[in-house]
């Protein structure tokens, strides 16, 4: 991706791409086939400091720009989307602590999370509260020096594996979204139960879990003041939507590259597919739409870097990139014909992996609502 990166960032991204080529891409098909969590792949990325790519230097990260973060995520997703899914879920958890936590919580969790010692999860979604977090039922009630946390979270990436989980729960049922608070819950806390990983259509190595809570959490593990959890979650999701956009770009670029290579090599009637105008136009449309998605994502990244509010730009990027990537991958499969439909090539995996991008971290419908409300100034 043509991000504006300084020399250090270019070197960091080149190191990521080398690991992607040597470690992630060769194992991507097996991870998908066996639905195995990409531990070795994440460990290789941890050695490069990638687990803290979203964090400033004072909290253990490399202190790189949002553009370098997006470029890194794009490269990882293009090599193995399951690995990118687990990693970006980790970013959600550390973003939440960075944005909502005090220095004591940051000091306790972020350096270890950045180094790869501790994996995080972000528990917002519930069976009855997905796109509308204000409907959540998970409760946190004061009990002694802490909170009794009860309820169920669903579709939580890394949830049953994570060393810590940022959990959102209602502390004031009468205050709607202003009554939601956030807590850091550590692995091993009595009263946490995780289901086996869900059997999913795509991102099979990016394990998602149902989590049940009936546990006591210290008050010192609350992120910010009571009632500030919803605001923290929305800021985190703005970041996350840009990262989802970058994931979509990475997978779609891999699909486009495969289609171009196939069109050049595949012979039909004595001529390569690339000689046929119909194929040429398909590839032209794919590349044009993908470039438009890149520019929207770059706009959101620039706003994120500047410190400006970027909720609408993040939603535009996520909406367009996720829907465009699905079209690009589908056309790439079409160009491969019957071969694209087989498990021997990665095209069908790209199509499956991309399907969730229009759903998680806010569905396409929710992104349209956010964009419209920003433009119309309605709530």
UniProtKB/TrEMBL annotation:
Cofactor(s) this protein requires: FAD
Source species, domain of life: Bacteria
Record domain Acyl-CoA oxidase/dehydrogenase middle: where: 121-214
Pfam families: Acyl-CoA_dh_1, Acyl-CoA_dh_M, Acyl-CoA_dh_N
Domain Acyl-CoA dehydrogenase/oxidase N-terminal residues, every copy: 8-117
Residue stretches making up the Acyl-CoA dehydrogenase/oxidase C-terminal domain: 227-376
Keywords linked to the UniProt accession: FAD, Flavoprotein, Oxidoreductase
Entry similarity comment: Belongs to the acyl-CoA dehydrogenase family.
Protein name as catalogued: Acyl-CoA dehydrogenase family protein
Taxonomic classification: Bacteria, Pseudomonadati, Pseudomonadota, Alphaproteobacteria, Rhodospirillales
């Amino acid at each position: 991706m043509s991000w504006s990166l300084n020399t250090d960032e270019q070197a960091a991204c080149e190191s990521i791409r080398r690991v992607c080529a040597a470690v992630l891409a060769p194992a991507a098909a097996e991870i998908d086939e066996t639905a195995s969590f990409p531990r070795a792949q994440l460990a290789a990325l941890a050695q490069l400091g990638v687990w803290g790519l979203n964090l400033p230097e004072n909290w253990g990260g490399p202190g790189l720009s949002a553009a370098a973060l997006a470029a890194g995520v794009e490269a990882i997703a293009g090599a193995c989307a399951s690995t990118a899914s687990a990693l970006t879920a980790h970013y959600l958890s550390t973003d939440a602590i960075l944005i909502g936590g005090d220095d004591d919580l940051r000091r306790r969790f972020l350096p270890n999370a950045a180094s790869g010692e501790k994996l995080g999860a972000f528990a917002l979604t519930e069976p009855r509260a997905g796109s509308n977090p204000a409907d959540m039922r998970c409760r946190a009630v004061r009990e002694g020096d802490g909170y009794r946390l009860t309820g169920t979270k669903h579709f939580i990436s890394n949830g049953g594996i994570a060393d810590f989980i940022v959990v959102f729960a209602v502390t004031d049922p009468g205050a709607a979204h202003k009554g939601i608070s956030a807590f850091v819950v550590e692995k091993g806390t009595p009263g946490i139960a995780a289901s086996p990983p869900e059997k999913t259509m795509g991102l099979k190595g990016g394990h998602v879990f149902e989590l049940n809570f009936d546990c006591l959490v210290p008050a010192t593990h609350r992120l910010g003041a009571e009632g500030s959890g919803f605001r923290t979650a929305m800021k985190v999701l703005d970041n996350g939507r840009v990262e989802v956009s970058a994931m979509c770009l990475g997978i779609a670029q891999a699909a486009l590259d495969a289609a171009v290579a196939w069109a050049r090599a595949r012979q039909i009637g004595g001529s390569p597919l690339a000689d046929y105008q119909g194929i040429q136009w398909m590839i032209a449309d794919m590349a044009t739409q993908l470039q438009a998605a890149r520019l929207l994502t770059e706009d959101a990244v620039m706003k994120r870097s500047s410190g400006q509010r970027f909720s609408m730009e993040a939603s535009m990027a996520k909406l367009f990139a996720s829907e465009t990537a699905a079209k690009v991958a589908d056309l790439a499969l079409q160009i491969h014909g019957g071969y694209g439909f087989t498990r021997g090539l990665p095209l069908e995996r790209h199509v499956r992996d991309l399907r969730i991008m229009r759903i998680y971290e806010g569905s396409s419908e929710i992104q349209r609502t956010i964009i419209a409300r920003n433009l119309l100034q309605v709530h």
